[in-house]
Amino acid sequence: MTMYTLHMAQADFVAWRDNARRLLAARVSPGDVLWQDDDSAGDLFASGDTDLPPPSETPLALKLSRQHLRRLECASHYWPTHQQECRWALLYRVVWRLAQGEGEALLAGDSDGGVVEQRIKAVNHEVHHMHAFLRFHQQPVTPEEQHAPEFIAWFEPRHDVLEAAARHFIDRMGQHRWLIMTPEGAILCDGRQWHIERPESGTFTVQDYQALSTMEDDAEDLWLAYYASTFNPARLNEKTMVRSMPSRFWRHMPERVLITGLISHARHGARRLGQDSRLADKRGHTITLPK
Amino acid sequence: MQLTDKLIVLADAAKYDASCASSGAPKRSSRGQKGLGATNGNGICHSFTPDGRCVALLKILMTNFCLYDCQYCINRRSSNVPRARFSVDEIVRLTLDFYRRNLISGLFLSSGIIRSNDYTMEALVRVARTLRVEHQFRGYIHLKTIPDASPDLIRQAGLYADRLSVNVELPTSQSLNRLAPEKSDTTIRLAMSTIRDGLDEATAEPRAPRFSPGGQSTQMIVGADDTDDHTILGNVQSLYGDYRLKRVYYSAFSPIPESPSSVPLIAPPLLREHRLYQADFLIRGYGFRADELLTGPGNLSLDIDPKLAWALNHRELFPIDLDQADMYMIARVPGIGITSAKRIETLRRERRIRYTDLTRLGCSMKKLAPFITTQDYRPRQAGLERQALLAQMQTSTPAQMALL
Which superkingdom, per the lineage (chain B) (predicted)? Predict the structure, then answer.
């Protein structure tokens, strides 16, 4: 029995699809393929790149609906941890089983379909996190710098969501010029066209981003004033906050500087009232009705 | 007064409104166009404050000067709070500045009543119009409607806002009479009907002017009076039916400075508020009737959720066989939501359901265990009495003592 090793040089979905098609045509079962991402360390048992066998006399083929294809592609944007199964191997086992007539292989209740579903959920959730917690910083731009971005942001997503999430900002920002940087790539939009830039080697770092951002942004002070004031100390509930806004995002959000202070202030008595304590010391006044 | 100071006063004054949803707007995009903003129907929570509530919109009052003297409200005329008023330009500037930095999805604007109801409402509409027309702002706008404002102004508001809301304020008209003497249950309901008519018209006639595409919502304060949950849920059910409401929000009454003696000075009943939201969700999404959840006067149980409480009261209907039961009934099993119920139905067309499938679907196994059977599973607890089962299901985690 031959083991086949497939190097996914460009770890992308289209390349996987071509490979999967050829493997199905040759009736190679999932157990006989070793998938290697370009970033995964070599497997102890991997032998060099093996040529795939010619198509079998009874080739397997699979027609997937567009919706199923989209689900598989979405799941392929999930970056597994080292203990988790390689994304390409999982997806190949799913299409193999579908080709054998096991329709349940893509359903959430199935052992493989369940994992696919979890990964889709995690990817979509990360897209949502990026929509929500990314913060643009306004840059001073002189009239000579007509192409420099007016708004820049740094974000560290956990999965490959840069492109999926960027569409939202293209819709949102109108004709503004902006830049979003992540370790794996940056999106640059000039108000009409956009493109993705990949780092020449390795990854972009937060220092690369900080080299771009020069000035303080005045609107941030207004935002901090709003954030502290809209907080209701009488309802203190940190658990829900941390569950909804995981702390790994805080590092690049301006409000991070307020959170612990607001919590301890609330714990030490401010909880008695809903009002922002900055207002308690200010002079107030009651209103008399006009006669 | 500096803009920052105004913001502190008027955000503090507005935060007792629980609604923060930015969902339900039609699809809009500014791709390559003049103007700013997009909506796609889904809400986004851009931040969370340490009270666990989301910040999706810039939620402010236009002014906290107010002629009314509602006892539960921090901005009542007899309250000794700092007062401020934003100009139209200030609100527009804050909204756009925050929006460009991805801090918010839009604006939630309410106001104290100054001069007259129409004057106030007109000022609110002017802010929305400036944002939409002058700045071509395509983000989310929620306008709080002044109940006594003229129907014509409400129509104009619907032209620019994604959602309109009128607060019923308190669960019953008796409480409203006692605590908010200037407000009247009748005019509040009239305003809600005006909005409903606008919504009906916009859906019935394709050429009708745009009207609040995200629908209308309302809010009631819980815990400022002594109305029980049974009455609340009954009234809520008729509100949903009568006014095509998208949502009813419940706001646990927070103690306010110099609290008048007519309202309690106690910690907000957060768990009660949570149970009401759960019951509300069961009424809206699961086809429960209010009188199924609470058969007589009293409050929802605080220690178990309303769906579990209902199932424990109806042991005769359970356990159900997941391979046979209606989807409607599967969704009524504690621990199984609508999505999981649909997935169970799809899966059982391929093969029979196994117990471990439910784990993968993310159901709450501890809750559902006594209420279902599958081909490889029968509940041990089938014979247990309600009380014994309840005791078995509750884990007592030690709770820290409350500060208040």
Answer: Bacteria
